[in-house]
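To whoever picks this up:

The parser on our side crashed when reading a file containing two proteins. I've narrowed it down to the boundary between the first structure block and the second sequence. Both blocks are reproduced below exactly, byte for byte. First block:
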Amino acid sequence: MRIDGILKKYDRLAIFVDYDGTIVPLKGWEPHKSKPDAELIRIVRELSRIPYVQLTIISGRNFNELNKYFPIKGIFVAGAYGGIIRDRVNKIYYLVSPSSIRYSLSIAKRVILSIIRKQHGFVFEDKLVGFALHYGQAYHGAKDKVFGRISEFFERFALKGDFNLFDWRSSVELVHKAVSKGNGVKYILENLTPPYYYPVYFGDDITDRYALEPINEASGSFFFVGENIESVDEVRAFLKAVIQKYRGTGAYESEQVQLPNEILRKGKTGFKDILKTLLEVQEEEISEREEEGI
C-alpha cells in the first residue's frame, strides 16, 4: 500500500520505526552517537497521547541507551534488536535473557577487542546481545587485516550457531541469533497489540529486513528508506500527518490515561473487565516482586 493511503484507510495503527537512519539521520562514521533532536522528541511525545496509535521505536542500539533517549510513557521501546522491550506502561519484557547468552558474548567480545587492539580508526559498540565495529575512519590495510581475522573467527566459532554477521555501511555487526527485529515485531504484534491495529514498519538497514516477514504475515506495510520511502524527513512527515489526523479530535488527549496492554489487546472496555484485568496485573506484579525478593 502507498504511504499516503494508510491514513485514509486505517484509523488504528501499530507503527514500528527503526532509529538510526530512519527517524534520525546517520552521523558520519559514528552512527551510534546520533541523538534525538527536539523535533523528534516532540513528535514521539504527541504520538504517545493518541490511544489509536501504538508507536514502537525498535533498534539494534543498547536498550539502556535507547530507554534514556525516550523516557516517555505511552510508547514501546525495543532495544537490542527487539530482544528487550518496554511497553506503554514501562513494563519490561526479555525475549532472551542476556545472562543466557553471556558465555558466547564474552568470548566474542574478548576476541574482537584483541583483534582491534592498537588498530586506529575502529570504534567498538557493545549492544548487550551483540556488537558493532564501526570502521569508517580506518585505513584500508587495517580494514583488510581486521576483517580477515574477524572472518576467521566467525567461520570457526560464530557459524556453529551463535551469531549472525552483517557488514553494512562501514560497520560490521555480530548479533546473537537468539534475537532479531523480526522476533521483536512478531512478539509485540502477537502479545501486546490489539488485533485490529494495522501494522506499519519503517526501516533502513539490513537488520530491518527481518521484520518484513511478521509484517507481511499481519498484512501490514513495510517501508525501507532509500527504496519505497525517500528519507528520514519523509518518515517524520508521515508521523506528523498521523498527529495531525487526530489532533483536535476525541482520540487526542493531552493527558492520556495509559491502560495495561492486556486490556488494550483484548479490547476490554467495560468497567468490570478493566477492573478485573487491573487486579490481575497487580497480582502478577506482586508475585514477580516476591519471586525476585523485592
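<<boundary where parser fails>>
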Amino acid sequence: MAMSGVFEIAGTKPEEQELPESVSLIDLSEQEPDPSKDILENGFLRAGGGMLFVGPSGIGKSSASVQQDILWALGREAFDIKPVRPLEILCIQAENDIEDLKEMGRGVRQALRITPEEADQIRDTVRYHTERRHTGKAFLEKVVKPLLERHKPDLLRIDPLLAFLGADPSDQKETADFLRTGLNPLLDEFGVAVVINHHTPKVINRDTSHWRGSDWMYAGAGSADITNWCRAAVVIDPTHTQGVFKFILAKRGGRIPWFNPAGERVFEKYFRHATDGRICWERASQDDISKAQTNNQKRSTRTLTEGEVIALIPEEGSIPKNQLIERCKQSGMTHQGAINLVQRMLEAREVYEWRVRRSGTNPERRISRHEQPQPPPEPSPEKRPARGAKSRGAKKVKRSRK
C-alpha cells in the first residue's frame, strides 16, 4: 500500500509528478510522530528509510543477517536491537548459494531453539531471493519492484550493496542514482524500510582504536553520500581476539537503549561467533571482552611491511604522498612511522616519487611503483634574426634615386 503525502507520487513517472504542498514546521511540531511508521525501536528505522549494516568481507555479516531476520520476524531483539512488532522480511542476496543458506538457517535455528510453532511463523514471513544477473537500474526495476509487489514486506534487505550497485561506489552520481533516484521511490511506494549490507574498504589491518562515532559512520566503502543517504548505521569491527567482534551504533545510535553494567549509555557492544562450531552469533562473555580490549591495545600501532605498503599504491599511475601516509596510518602505523618507512622505500628505490606541476604553487609529490615518465621536450622557440642582420636567402633590393 502506498504511503500518504509525498509518498503518493512515488509510483508515477517523473514527467507526471507534481510537487506536493509544502508543510508548516509549526503544524508538524504540533503532531505526535506516527508509531505505525516505526520498524525498529524508537524510530531507529522507519518505513521509507534505510539502514547500513557494515563490516569487512568474510566475518559473517550474512549469518548475522539471517539471525536478525529470524528474530525480528518473531518480534524479538537481535543483537540487542528490537523490532516494534513481528516483521515480514524479504532478503535479496547474491553472495551465498543455497547450501550456504541451508547451513546458516539451520545453525541459527538450532542455536536459538526455535520451536515448531515459531518455525511455521517464520516460514510465512521471511523470504530469501537469490539474484545474480541484474545490477543498477535493471536490478531495481526487474527484481526489487516485482518482489515488493509480490511479498509486500515490512523490511527489505539487500545483501550486499556492491553486488547490485553496478557502478563505482566512490562515484557520488552513481550512488545517488541507485539509492536516491532509484531505491527511495520504491521504499516510499511500498511503505517498506531497507537494510543494506555493505563492505568496508580493502584496508590492511586499519587501526580503529581511536575512532569516534563520526568516523564509524563512514566506515563503509565508497562515496560519503552512501552514509549521508542512510538514516541509521550499524558497523561490525573485528577485534584482535579470534571470533570476537565489536558492534557499533554508528549513526542514530542514541535511539537504541544500550547500557553497560554500570547503567551508563554505550554505543558499542561485543558479540562473537558461536563456540560450538554452529554458524550463528552469541553474546561475548566478559572474559571475551577483556581479552579483546587488551589485545586491541597491544596492537593499536604496528609497522607495515614494504609489500603491504606497495599494495596500497595503484599498480598503474601514482597516489598523492600524503594520501599514502594516511592509508598507512589507517592500517595501524603512527604518522611518523609511516613517513619514515616510505622514505626508506624511496631511498631503496622500491617505490618512486613523482613531482607533478601545479599552477601557482609547488609541484605535488606523488608515489608510484614505477619511475616517473619523462615529459616530452618542449619545442625550442624559433630564433629571429637580430635587428639589422640579413636573413639567409634574402635578396638585396636597390632603392632608386630620385
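After patching the parser it read the second block fine. The chain is about 35% helix and 20% strand. The first helix runs from residue 25 to 29.
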